[in-house]
Amino acid sequence: MAELPSGLLEACVVIGASSDKLREIYQLHQHGNSKELPLLEAEVLQVHAPPFVSKETSSSQAIGPAFSRVQRRRSFIKKKKRDRPVDDPVNGESAKNAEASSTNDDISVPKDLDLIALPQLCFPGGLQLATEQKEDSYHFLVFTDLFGNRTHGVVVQHHRSVQMSHESIAQNGSIQRRNSSRLYAPFAICIISKFPYYNALRDCLSCLLVQLRLGRQSEFEETVKEVSAKLSLVPLPPPGQLHVSFSLRPLQIVLPSREAQDRPVIDINLHLPLLCFTDAMLLQVLSCLLQEQKVVLFSSDWARLTLLAESLLLYLQPLSWQQPYVPVLAKGMLDFLMAPTAFLMGCHVSHIEEVAAETDDLILVNIDDGSIQTSWAEQMVLPCIPLAAAECFASRTESLQLHYDLELCHAGAGTDANERRAHRRDWQHRLNTQIQNIALELVLNIFRDVQDYLNYEHRVFNSEEFLRTREPGEQTFYKTVLDTHIFHSFLRDRLNRKIDAYSRMEINTRNSAPRNRVMTDSPRRPPMSELSRSGYSGPEHRLSRRLGASLPNLDQSPADSMKALNSHRLNSLRKITPDTGLKFNQKPVKVFRLPEFPPPLAYHYVQNYYQDMVVSLGKAISATPPDDSSLLARYHYLRGLVNTVSNKRLDALEDFQSLYKTDAEIFPPQMVKALVDSLPASERAQAEKRPELKHFISRIKRDQERERSRSDNNDEEGAIKRFKLPKKHMQLEEFVKCVQESGMVKDQDTIHSLFDALTVGQQKQVGPDLFRVFYTIWKETEAEAQEVCLPASVLEHLEPSECVFKLSSSVKTSRGVGKIAMTQRRLFLLTDGRPGYVEVAQYRDIEDVKVSSAPLMLLRIPSLKLRVRGRKDAFEANLKTEAELWNLMVKEMRAGRSMADLHKDPQYMQQALTNALLMDAVVGSLQSNKAIYAASKLSHFDRIRTEVPMMVPQTTAEVLKHKINPSLELTTPHAVDVLLYTPGQLWVSVSGGKVMVFDASTWSITHTCLQVGTARLNCMLEVDSDQVWMGSEDSVIYIITVATMVCNRQLTEHRTEVTGLTLGTDKYSQKVAYSCSAEGNVMLWDLATLQVRKQFRLSCDRLLSVCNHNGGLWCCSRDSIIEVWRNGSLKHRMSLPEQLKGAGTAFSSILLLPEVWIGGVARSSLKGKVYILDAERHLVLKELHGHADRVTALCSAEDRYALSGAGKLDGKVAIWKVE
């Protein structure tokens, strides 16, 4: 039997008092012997759970209808009936009929349902009889199993008159004995679901009560069972903008879908916490949850407890609460509050004094009056959320419209209840979306910097470095949060590069400055313009920031910070500019209305109902335009689900195949796997005869194997390490790993040179003491650079992105007394006294650097002498013992600048800067006469400049404009597989389906490592402004939505790897797409329907790419270029030119501009070349030498530039000017 996802209803349970106790109390009450009505013990009276109908079949593989997903584990009711007297007179005929109907029934109970605790939770205040009718009361429950899986319940307490059968009471109690008085017993009806549809299930219970009031008491059980069976037929909507609605008289009930696969179902009013708490109090509660305190909610209304608790946890998304969670504690469960772990629980406000007195480590939150207190004996100040994030949150919430009545001021009185409910539902949905975005921004502002301290390769979080950079007043908060389970789970998702709402908002709101620094600065330094804005304005602030790594801020308590938040709100908060990251395009919501329910307890009626649903979904699919692929995918999901439960397996597979191609994000792999495994032999044979279905099934199996192999590495993927200094001697391999984990350097070659430097003259291993000293000096130098305070008169001479990386001691120079400052662009003198700026030299202008000596009385002082282009007099600084080190550093910076200018590659400059700073740390840590010689091991570019002439052919130098390195954040260079330019963006694919996106105006990275499949990508194509197609080695064309950077759709018609994509027009001038695969197949795609219109096959040696040009298709193979007409007939074939033929020579890519650009390798070496051909004469015009490895990819940017990418020995992208 296939395992299907849960439907809306998991079980429906009726709770009440036992018949024996009710009879006893009733008789005492009628005879006037009962002065007070006692509290009774509640017990389970009925359990209704799927399957409600079944069909006898001989097939062991059959999938039963009505979501037959629950095994028949035990009969709860049957056991109760055996233990109960046969002549049970409670509730008259209903008891007899219930006995008769249940004696032979074996009612299944969901395996995770705790029937022992459920009665207490349904009557948390106790089961109390009453002498008068009471209003129905609702509350909500959450059950959590040992694995953290949650189940949700909605409970209604409904009072019914207690009637005894021997008193001849008619239905509804219309005839009574004159002297008898009424007695009302509460019954609780609890609907349990796997999903938190609180509002929808409350509406279902409201409709059920209407039917119970209109029916006879003898029909009570049958009515509850029938409604339960109907709810079990309701399919849940897939993630996205498609809701599901159904009619349960008298209401039309809507099940809202999740907004996305990574977002939870939200069917509550998220603004309730904003109504109950002030901003400061609400932020304090969220702070306690983030720190995993023991939090207890109190209220006089049981319903508020769960609704507020659920809202608070939703505010923390994507952080997921990992601790015990019981939002409603019954009176007999208060001992749960003695648990030693953190938890979130709730109980009645009448117990608040008792709880506070019994325990001393709780956070007590009174929902009714919006207050927070602690149960500690001594007053304790709890750490608050960082002030900047808190201020932003308070500003956002202040602008919300929280009162629905204000929305109705202009509206008339509605006469249609369902229409009024729909209007309120739409208003609430919009408000919930706003609150979700505001809460997500709060979490983002708290943890935005975390990703800067992650090492993805070794799965390390440098927590000490992260804490060191926090403000002093935030230290306590972050120290506590970083050790929590909730943060650990969040950190694991970041290290796994999870694409969720958090990561998407982070990208949308990311400042351009940090993006630029990612691609330019290997060492972490803020630019001087940022330091000047961040408050580095005086020595007092610098001192407190320096001490902040180890001492708390004693001047201001966290409580004072929150007071400041409130006191400054009127002056500052309303002036905050709305962030574009919060402005999401709201897609219109569609509602699919289910057919009217059939009699739900008859098999053939249920099957007809499923058939009606399939027909309705088919009509919806036909009416949906092809370009609305998102909505089409959701209709296919629902129809596949319905076909599955109605045993139409092949139809279901076709729907899931369409879903797989249309929106892979919501594709349910486990359900489809179970469906494929359940196919009987006859249906499997039919599937084998359908090529598309056969290919789909084989792909599902391949995905299963891949998932199985990936699950073997789950422990490794889930592990997170904190960086710790080594405790033993390290060989080279261990040293490389340790340095990479520390975040100092990633490049392996540089780390190898550092290892050689630290082990000069000794055994080839680095001891823990030496590494600790080296690491400390590196961090101290970094901290000192961050504390540099430059006046405006100095800042105006520097570029906004410049950073001071190194300051000398105060020395005498030929141009005054002061400190020599080193930035990534220049050297300048920061004069003593009143700080002033004296330009020393830009690195490209330095002609000569040497160590000299300057006279001082009778001594000669070591000095550094620079000869600068355009200046007569040399610059000399009496650096004394620092002279040799500065000589090495300046030479390396000069050589790096020369290499960067010559090769148009700024990374050379950044690598030289890293080398110079490593030299400084090596000299400081060795403190020996060999220190300078050891540091010289890191003089990489200066050694190249001295030993190898740096020559670039003139033709190359004239055409080459710039270079970028996509592998900068990786430990080793990766081959560039594909390049694509779209307006304003450059897409770069490297090994294993990783895609990086660059801002084309600054060449800074905007999206790191988007994962598209698991195989190598061969080609990319911009289809329109919102779509990028990517062809992969796994024969799939992945379709990326540019707005979200998510791959939702796939084209799977190719049978071998996809190697080329291009756009064209058909004979009706409609835009179409062409794709080609390695074996020579070319397919023509309809962009609206994503269907193949036509295909043909070319005879060639491995087809590499296809390009549309002048009405024809140019196809590049391994040894020739073929021009064909659009119908596939050959027009022209051009073989590899004779002068280019030879060992190791081949075409790798082709680009058609005014000339033909072809990438390949040189004849005499492995270095890459770009050949520019005359398209008319078929001659080579130019040969461009721009890469140290073969050219693997080409693309054009607005026909003004050509871009080339190279193999892994080079791994860079060169940008060429097109003449």
UniProtKB/TrEMBL annotation:
WD repeats lie at residues 1184-1219. GO terms for molecular function: guanyl-nucleotide exchange factor activity. SUPFAM superfamilies: WD40 repeat-like. One of its GO terms (biological process) is regulation of Rab protein signal transduction. Residues 700-713 have a biased composition (Basic and acidic residues). Residues 75-501 form the UDENN domain. Signal peptide: none annotated. Pfam families: DENN, TPR_DENND3, uDENN, WD40. InterPro entries: cDENN_dom, dDENN_dom, DENN_C, DENN_Domain_GEFs, TPR_DENND3, Tripartite_DENN, uDENN_dom, WD40/YVTN_repeat-like_dom_sf. The keyword Signal does not apply. The keyword Plastid does not apply. One of its GO terms (cellular component) is cytoplasmic vesicle. Residues 78-106, 510-543, 700-721 are annotated as: Disordered. Keywords: Guanine-nucleotide releasing factor, WD repeat. It comes from the Eukaryota. PANTHER family: DENN DOMAIN-CONTAINING PROTEIN 3, DENN DOMAIN-CONTAINING PROTEIN 4. This is UDENN domain-containing protein. The gene is dennd3a.
